[in-house]
Write a structure and sequence with these properties.
- The protein is of the alpha+beta class.
- It has 10 helices and 5 strands.
- The protein is elongated, with a radius of gyration of 24 Å.
- The two termini are 37 Å apart.
């Protein structure tokens, strides 16, 4: 029986995941305890419920987040992957400990603002950054998300719709208890957090799908490969007026888009190029320093291209 031992590279990668996971938990805790809690602006999910209970009863928020989330994480963890369960548990424990730390009197001097609007905007940005880093590392800070994944598998509702439904109920409750303005500020925070989460998870590496219709397909494909290190999918097309054309398809990152435009302008100024957003890229981009590509032709056919 062969025993597979993890390589040094995989161990370092796993360690980096947990460092980012814990850092995200600490950032989220700071945003919550030092910006949102002092002005009674609520987060969503079980953390939001914990904030409401803590405000009404003065029970420590750090303990409530663990007590309310653990049952949901346990339910979700039994059906989801072991890695997800361990990372989520790590994130929640780190989050709870950080909240307990930031609630101490020493950190009151680091409170950035008491203005509700500023706390909503910048607290939402920091909270979204923290939660986004946790999600990027394969965990989550709220048990609602874990249960929402399970419900989504058995219904026609998406995870986002289920979480939104729970959060609307929480914000309505907050509005009844603390005033309608707090509910509206909380909803605004939720919107900001959601956008920052999306940016952290997809925006930094958001792909652009580029389709080029040209008479100089081989020349442009070669230039894309030499300049950007990207292979392309080659297809044959026919224009109603222009006749036979070569169609190139390639996925690049946002920062490579300017270089792509320059390549087109230099090689075929009359080429037609369309650019669209790609919300998710699964698989690796093949770069020109890959040892595999050294034995492959520069322009790959549609059947063999993996870009």
């Amino acid at each position: 029986m062969t025993v597979h031992t993890p390589s040094k590279e995989s161990l370092l990668k796993e360690m980096l995941h947990y460092i980012v996971l814990i850092a995200g938990s600490v950032i989220a805790a700071f945003a919550l305890e030092n910006m949102l809690v002092p002005v009674q602006i609520m987060d969503g999910g079980m953390v939001g419920i914990a904030m409401i209970i803590s405000t009404l009863t003065k029970f420590p928020l750090s303990l409530l987040t663990i007590l309310l989330n653990l049952p949901l994480v346990w339910i979700g963890g039994r059906k989801l992957s072991r890695s997800f369960f361990i990372r989520t548990l790590t994130a929640m424990v780190s989050f709870s400990l950080a909240i307990n730390l930031f609630s101490s009197g020493f950190f009151e001097q680091f409170r950035l603002t008491d203005d509700k609007l500023l706390a909503t905007v910048f607290g939402g940005v920091l909270l979204g950054l923290g939660v986004g880093l946790v999600l990027l590392s394969g965990g989550c800070l709220d048990g609602t998300e874990a249960v929402a994944i399970l419900i989504s598998r058995k219904t026609n509702f998406s995870v986002g719709q289920i979480v939104l439904f729970f959060n609307v109920l929480i914000y309505l409750t907050a509005g009844l208890l603390f005033g309608l303005d707090r509910a509206m500020y909380s909803m605004l925070t939720y919107i900001i957090v959601s956008r920052i989460e999306d940016f952290v998870n997809t925006g930094m590496q958001q792909g652009k799908a580029v389709m080029i219709i040209t008479d100089h397909g081989e020349q442009i494909a070669q230039e894309i490969y030499d300049t950007l290190g990207r292979t392309v999918t080659v297809m044959e097309g026919s224009g109603l007026i222009s006749g036979e054309k070569t169609v190139l398809y390639c996925v690049i990152t946002r920062i490579e888009l300017a270089s792509m435009r320059k390549i087109i302008e230099q090689n075929d100024y009359s080429a037609f190029m369309s650019v669209s957003d790609v919300s998710e890229i699964i698989g690796k981009h093949i770069k020109n320093n890959s040892p595999i590509l050294r034995t492959l032709p520069v322009v790959e056919t549609e059947e063999t291209d993996k870009s």
